[in-house]
Amino acid sequence: MPDIFSAHRHGDESITLRPETTAVLVVDMLNDFCTAGGAMVLPGGEVLYGPQNALMDAARLAGMPVAFINDAHRPGLRQDREFDKRTPHCMEGTWGAEVVQELTQGPDDLHITKRRFSGFFNTDLDLTLKDMQIDTVIVAGVVTNVCVRSTVHDAFFQGYKVIVPEDCVAATGPREQISSLYDISNNYGIVSGSAEIINALGGDGVVMNREIAE
Amino acid sequence: MPDIFSAHRHGDESITLRPETTAVLVVDMLNDFCTAGGAMVLPGGEVLYGPQNALMDAARLAGMPVAFINDAHRPGLRQDREFDKRTPHCMEGTWGAEVVQELTQGPDDLHITKRRFSGFFNTDLDLTLKDMQIDTVIVAGVVTNVCVRSTVHDAFFQGYKVIVPEDCVAATGPREQISSLYDISNNYGIVSGSAEIINALGGDGVVMNREIAE
Amino acid sequence: MPDIFSAHRHGDESITLRPETTAVLVVDMLNDFCTAGGAMVLPGGEVLYGPQNALMDAARLAGMPVAFINDAHRPGLRQDREFDKRTPHCMEGTWGAEVVQELTQGPDDLHITKRRFSGFFNTDLDLTLKDMQIDTVIVAGVVTNVCVRSTVHDAFFQGYKVIVPEDCVAATGPREQISSLYDISNNYGIVSGSAEIINALGGDGVVMNREIAE
Amino acid sequence: MPDIFSAHRHGDESITLRPETTAVLVVDMLNDFCTAGGAMVLPGGEVLYGPQNALMDAARLAGMPVAFINDAHRPGLRQDREFDKRTPHCMEGTWGAEVVQELTQGPDDLHITKRRFSGFFNTDLDLTLKDMQIDTVIVAGVVTNVCVRSTVHDAFFQGYKVIVPEDCVAATGPREQISSLYDISNNYGIVSGSAEIINALGGDGVVMNREIAE
Fold it and tell me: How, if at all, do strands A136-142 and A161-165 pair?
């Protein structure tokens, strides 16, 4: 059961997937965050590759767009205010800013460049999704509690229905993983798993919100 | 110590307050969230009134703007997509959408109306702060893990230095309070307390980042 | 015939009005711009009242939302960068910032506050229209070549179909009126008249683009 | 003299250039708009190359950033709503979307991709300029009455001081050129010429607003 404040949501929620209005967003699966030698590597992030590849395969088969949302920072700027807070990373044109090779990319996949944590902040993501008549997004990637979560926030504010498959996102620690999923399931969208989503695509399309423990 | 990913930040951080470029943002201290009888009341939120009033008093005395960032929803819309997820609340023109009477308001305080969780989303907050040459914001209010946090995200993305006084924000539960503060202190700004901020305003202006336990 | 560059548009264009997805936007019909004694009055603006009232009546009768988009500037800001360029006007709470009394307002009309020329810039207009499933806007108001035009630009960028009724907008001079209508008809939407729109609402809904002379 | 409405601006305006806070924006100088064989070529646009190259040379010498703002449309989208109105153009990866070879590019020049007419709409232009502490922009390019003008609008709304050098922008016709310059000089910024700007950079930095005939 959620706490008394969070409980003020619509109960037993579900989202019914329609492939023609749904997209998969894969956030920051880049060498700098995922591969040994990267600028700020999340330990254990490689467990995401299998579920993410399965999810993307099913999406492409169903005709759904897959968009890689990739952090990139312009080299040579006088100042990049994100680096006032965080170590430099994902410099445009470097290996660190590339999608990890373990993920399969399709010929029609989209690539969106972002400059801050959220995939929607000062990018063409919203415009491109609305051009494509997308109203539902499935969000995967790293890290759950920073870039994934920021992207989920803005997706909800912009009116998208949001699904986060638990096994396709990883946080900086167990408390942050469950806390962000709890907030997402209660305030921004629904939490599910890659298998449930893939099954829904092959069936009636219904994905249920998982209850995340308080 | 933060986890290995979050640790990739600039260490021992501080922000030096300058009253002429700093503003206090008070998020969603409204009857619907704080007062018995409101639409979705956060239990115990009244502990914030004392520290928030002290912080605002010190800010006004120092000549800093105070802005109340208030959720409000237009009555009679065919649809309000926030209500697809959450119970209706803060209807424009109702008691629930008013700032709680326990907080002192000053004659020059600003009021910003927001329609979604973040105070920056489709509002004039950024424009107004930049018109006033503000580059640093102190963010107070409820709830830490939803509206406060969303506002902090966007403030950081827009280039503001961000300070969150721990005793001026309340979450939906203890795990969410510490998890959001942990993320804020590592990725978006610094966490401090109202007393430290008030002392800094009367002294050298330096506010240190509190280490939040992993 | 348009010039050779502008001619690269889809020819003989029309928009088919559907009342459930169309809204009327009335921009800046405020005392400061329209009424003797206002801060910067457009001479002759009163010719708009008749066609605008007729258009709004027909819209309300058809169940279409009418939104007044009103410029307002916060008093007491340290600086308002619009006033670096233009004389102060439309101060919030003053007579100058009120809609002219000659226009009829309905009980369900929306009011959107804007801080810059465009009705979409840092306001909740796009969010509110999308909440209401609006995809087509009819834009009336003053002045054609500044606030109306800026609003038309952003409406088109955001994906709305745009109709400007020629007799419901007035510019600062005849050259600016025809030049802005020419650009709108070739690049942003279609130009028509209030009578054609009202007729369309009572008939097949089709509104044709008027050819504006080069 | 401007008309009675437009005249409500600050008179005899000037902007004092400071190289460390000024950038040159070159809008849409792309093959599809400028070179024989392009998708929608503006006749005579080649007269801009000389003044633009001189302006950019002077800017780079003074240490000012030069940013090419380039329209680009994603191939293979289900729909691109700009193409509901305009002929397809500037497809990403094609010759038509490349900057004309007659313009000199420097190794530190920035490239900003835009999807709609305005360089600021859903791009990282504002963020990047603010990261670089730019508060003044000199805007050159094509066409004055569409993409240049839309970019000027948003630059002003975002708080930048705006200078448009008359000989570095070309419109779709003489009426549109003078009408857009008139509006810019009265409502959005100042109009000057490349020689005056280059002289100012070598002298006291002062650029005066040209009076554009009513």
Answer: parallel
Q: How far apart are CA C148 and CA C168, in angstroms?
A: 10
Best CA proximity match to D25, nearest among D163, D200, D121, D156? D163
C-alpha D110: how far from chain center: 14
By C-alpha distance, which of A115, A104, A11, A7 is closest to A56? A104
C163, β-bridge pairs: C138, C190
Shortest Cα distance from C107 to chain D (angstroms)? 32
Q: Which pLDDT score, from 0 to 100, does residue D78 have?
A: 85
Supply the pLDDT for residue D115. 97
A9/B38 Cα distance (integer angstroms) = 15
pLDDT at A58 over 80: yes
CA distance C102 to C109: 16
DSSP-assigned states of every residue in B74-101: -TT-S--GGGGTB----BTTSGGGSBPT
Q: Which residue carries 């951080």 as its tokens?
A: B13
Spatial contact of D165 and D192, defined as CB atoms under 8 Å apart? yes
Q: Does ipTM come in above 0.85?
A: yes
CA A190 – CA A162 distance, rounded (Å): 6
Cα–Cα separations (whole angstroms), residue D179 to C181, D44, D204: 12, 19, 30
A11: tokens are 């109960």
Q: Which CATH architecture has domain A14-208?
A: 3-Layer(aba) Sandwich (3.40)
Helix-strand-coil split of chain C, %, nearest 5 = 35, 20, 40
Global confidence as pTM: 0.97
CB spacing of B132 vs C79 below 8 angstroms? yes
Distance of residue B110 Cα from the nearest chain A Cα, in angstroms: 23
In chain B, which residues have their Cβ closer than 8 Å to the Cβ of D127? 159
Q: Tokens representing B9? A: 């930040």
